[in-house]
Each structure stands twice: as structure tokens, then as C-alpha cells.
Design a protein that fits this description.
Helices cover 87% and strands 0% of the residues. By secondary structure, it is mainly alpha-helical. Helix 1 crosses helix 2. The N and C termini lie far apart (52 Å).
Amino acid sequence: MPELTGHILMPIAGVIVGWFIDKDVPSYGLCQVAVSYILFVAILFILALGPWKLFHWHRKRRSNKSARQSD
């Protein structure tokens, strides 16, 4: 878990924070950590709800396709 936030998410968060805050600002590191946590929660949210949404979309698509074939 620390490897994910430290090696993957922190550089991405650094780029995002760098768009809005200069690196010389003392709170840059704190903002970078906050953005990396937001990214981590977003990834967990996508992983948690992704399979359900994909299954729901596939089931809905399949029912629409069978309704068209029966016409």
C-alpha cells in the first residue's frame, strides 16, 4: 500500500498540485499528500463500483439487443 501512494500516486499528485501551487510554497508537500489521498480514494471508488456498473451496463445492453431481435 505505501508503495502505491509513494511511487505511483505522489508524482501524479505533484503534477496536479504543480498546476496550481508553486513548488517554493511551504504547503506544497501537504497539498501533494492531500491530492494523492484524493486520487487513492477515487481509485478505490472506481474499483469498488466498477464491476457493478460494468455488469449493469452489459445486462442493460443485452436486454436491449434481445428486445430488438424479437421485433
